[in-house]
Design brief:
Structural class: alpha+beta
Distance between the termini: 58 Å
Number of strands: 10
Order of helices and strands: HEEEEEEEEEE
Strand content: over 45%
Oligomer: single chain
Number of helices: 1
Length: 145
């Protein structure tokens, strides 16, 4: 019985140490959450449902005085840059385009650059030269769509 209690105590101690390590590890720059932008009648919501470093979620652009588009996002997170494919519906038509966000202090800043068409998919010409000028910054828990 004494051996059983000792083994149980050691197992509990090891398990609690592993859990503490997970809780205090804040090195990953992105969380499963909804990130939003709301200014001048434009609303953008990026509901991230998976991060590991595959990033998945739903993305909605509701531009002021323009058609709304919504769809799915699947990409990767590398060097604090989310880069992936946004498959969406707009005006009843399915489209696909590449989207990028820079992650800094829990804020996602959308990246912009020259676009080329590759088999019907709008892709960046050069992902290393994207501009993250701060025009569109999505903040955690700011979704309204």
């Amino acid at each position: 019985m004494k051996n059983f209690l000792t083994i149980l105590f050691i197992a509990a101690l090891v398990t609690s140490c592993k859990q503490e390590k997970k809780i205090t590890d804040k090195s990953f720059p992105l969380e499963v959450a909804c990130y939003g932008y709301n200014e001048n009648g434009t609303n953008i919501s990026f509901r991230i449902t998976r991060v590991d470093p595959v990033v998945q979620g739903t993305l909605i652009y509701n531009w002021a005085e323009k058609d709304r588009n919504s769809g799915s996002f699947k990409g990767t997170l590398e060097n604090n840059i989310i880069l992936g494919v946004y498959t969406f519906l707009s005006e009843g038509k399915q489209s696909i385009r590449e989207v990028a966000f820079k992650v800094e202090n829990g804020v996602l800043t959308e990246g912009f650059g020259n676009i080329k068409d590759v088999a019907g998919v709008a892709t960046f010409e050069d992902t290393t030269s994207l501009t993250y000028d701060g025009t569109i910054k999505l903040e955690k828990d700011k979704c309204i769509n």
